[in-house]
Amino acid sequence: MNSLQSYIEQNGMDPAEVMNALQTMAPLGTCSDNAVTPADVVTAGAAVFWVHTHRELFTRISRKQK
User: Fold this and answer.
1) Per-residue pLDDT tens for 13-62?
2) What are the phi and psi torsion angles at 35 (to 5°)?
3) What is the pLDDT of residue 57?
């Protein structure tokens, strides 16, 4: 398990939503377009930093699902 998978699990996030945000909104190099799941992200540390910095995006997503 990489650090991105762990972060997603610990914070109860939807992996698909996180991957979508990483691939569409994060700076180039944070997540490859070839990465399909959090396990595929080679730069997991950079991805965790970006997700944590932009966690307000995912708070809204979580509220919609409840």
Assistant:
1) 999 999 999 999 999 989 988 999 999 999 999 999 999 999 988 866 55
2) -75, 125
3) 86
3-state helix, strand, coil in the chain (%, to 5): 65, 0, 35
Distance of CA 7 to the CA centre of its chain: 8
CB 19 within 8 A of CB 60: no
Rounded to 10 degrees, what is the CA torsion of 7, 9, 13, 19? 70
Residue 48, CA atoms < 13 Å, CB-side half-sphere: 15
Q: Which residue type occupies 25?
A: M
Q: Using the 8-state DSSP alphabet, how is residue 39 labeled?
A: G
